[in-house]
Specification:
Blueprint (H helix, E strand, L loop, with lengths): L10 H8 L7 H11 L7 E5 L5 H10 L4 E6 L12 E4 L16 E6 L9 H22 E12 L4 H11 E7 L10 E9 L8
Parallel strand pairs: 1-2, 1-4, 2-3, 4-5
Antiparallel strand pairs: 5-7, 6-7
Helix pairs in contact: 4-5
């Protein structure tokens, strides 16, 4: 993302660093998890676009030693995950990527991905929607029935259609805007719970 980090030096960033997390985004997932009751001991979790690693660290702590976590990104993590969690360099948005199936089927698929912003709001929203829908495709492919998906998206004209895609595949769809989100930000998290399972072709 271009420009200075708007969060540099703020209280949440300092709190996250003190707790060993590379970014304040951990508190967004913590709030989402608290409100939606997503992550449990023994869960299998896929973290798409995991760098710098705060969400993966949080998820690993919640699922415990009996859980399984696969984190994937084109960039390396800034933290070290501990076995049985694994990090792989790779395309997290390709269902043809066999490595994504490492611990499939998953109970939860997470995506905190966002495009590098250009300053053109409409273009950024369109790219965010594309990332979101690709992450949703991966979730639909690898989730177990009853599983959950969390994806970040920039709200724009395509936002209602993106929500409709989540409702198509999940029994419950909800929006969560964590308290740590900047007031000027137009990002929001869409949470799908109760995955209906894969729909047969032609159905």
């Amino acid at each position: 993302m271009s420009g200075k980090n708007p969060y540099r030096g703020d209280a949440k960033t300092k709190q996250a660093k003190a707790a060993g997390f590379p970014a304040r985004s951990v508190y967004k997932l913590e709030e989402i998890d608290h409100r939606a009751k997503l992550l449990r001991q023994g869960h299998h979790v896929l973290d798409l676009g995991a760098s710098p690693g705060s969400w993966s660290m949080y998820a690993q702590r919640k699922i415990g030693g009996n859980g399984r976590l696969l984190a994937m990104d084109l960039k390396p993590l800034e933290v070290q995950l501990h076995p049985p969690a694994e990090f792989m360099i790779g395309d997290a948005l390709s269902i043809e990527n066999d490595a994504l199936a490492k611990f499939a089927p998953y109970d939860v698929v997470l995506s905190d991905m966002a495009p590098n912003t250009s300053g053109n709001r409409m273009a950024d929203q369109a790219r965010s929607t594309e990332l979101f829908l690709r992450a949703l495709d991966v979730a639909v492919y690898f989730l177990k029935p009853g599983g959950a998906f969390v994806g970040k998206i920039f709200m724009g004209e395509d936002f209602p259609d993106a929500r409709a895609q989540v409702r198509k595949h999940f029994r419950e769809e909800r929006l969560i805007r964590p308290e740590g989100t900047r007031s000027v930000s137009y990002e929001i998290f869409v949470v799908g719970q109760g995955f209906k399972g894969k729909v047969a072709e032609g159905a």
